[in-house]
Amino acid sequence: MWMYLAAATCVLVMAGGCASASEIQLDNETITSSPSNMASNSVMSDTPALLEFDTGDETVLATSSNAGESIDVSPFTPTTGRIAVYSDCVGSGRITIAIGNVAEFSYDCRENADDAAHGDELDVDPSGSPSISVKTDNQELWTVTVVAVPPL
User: Fold this and answer.
1) How far is CA 54 from CA 67, 71, 136, 146, in A?
2) Distance from the CA of 76 to the CA of which of 49, 58, 102, 120 falls in 20 to 30 A?
3) Across-strand partners of 76?
4) 3-class secondary-structure state, position 112
5) Residue 80 near residue 148 (C-beta atoms within 8 A)
6) Which of 86, 85, 82 is nearest to 126 (CA)?
7) How does residue 120 score in pLDDT terms, banded at 50, 70 and 90?
8) 57-79: per-residue pLDDT in tens?
9) Distance between CA 126 and CA 144 in Å, rounded?
């Protein structure tokens, strides 16, 4: 069952400004997000803040946040045969997220608080151990959280 977006376990949030709540649509269910209200050097910015993902009772398998370039996250072990990948990126570029050799997603980053974060579901081998690779175009701020979801 899907819960709304807000604070995920161990998500590091790097943001510069405040943003209003946003929504994303996953399998015909709307998921609401809460912004991070952090300022950078006490200067407010027009750039929206990264969203924090509240996974509720979902099992967090992997999470990472970074301020630019790319990062590979250690492999995770799926606890079911299906995962959800929540991602957010702020700035004028794109974010590309690869889940091992299973899937790759690429999105425009949010340039204002009204733009939506992203959520994708996919089937994975529950005995596998995929890793997450994240790349951005222009060193945008980003965060990614992977959770286990019940199989269809």
Assistant:
1) 21, 22, 23, 12
2) 49
3) none
4) coil
5) yes
6) 82
7) very high
8) 899 999 888 855 567 677 899 98
9) 20
- Residue 4 has a pLDDT of 29
Q: Give the whole-angstrom CA distance, residue 92 versus residue 10.
A: 26
Which residues are CB-contacts of 24 (< 8 A; sequence separation ≥ 6)?
5, 30, 31, 33, 116, 117, 118, 119
Other C-beta atoms within 10 Å of 1: how many?
8
d(CA 87, CA 95) in angstroms, rounded, equals 9
pLDDT at 68: 54
**pLDDT class for 151, splitting at 50, 70, 90?**
confident
| Tokens encoding 99 | 């889940």
Q: What is the pLDDT, as a whole number, of residue 72?
A: 66
User: How far, in whole angstroms, is CA 109 from its chain's centroid?
Assistant: 11
CB 134 within 8 A of CB 99: no
Q: Are 52 and 5 in contact (CB under 8 A)?
A: yes
pTM over 0.70: no
